[in-house]
Design brief:
This protein is mostly helical and about 40 residues long. The protein has two helices and no strands.
């Protein structure tokens, strides 16, 4: 259970990081990171 929670938190952080990149205008990189985070 704890491992799953850690993995979920890691995915969330990756998506948040991608959202920050998106806010900076690097849209394609951000979308790639979101897809990567969701597939991981």
């Amino acid at each position: 259970m704890e491992t799953q929670e850690i993995l979920a938190a890691h995915k969330t952080m990756k998506v948040m990081a991608a959202a920050i990149e998106n806010a900076k205008g690097d849209r394609w990189v951000a979308e790639t990171e979101v897809l990567r985070a969701l597939q991981a």
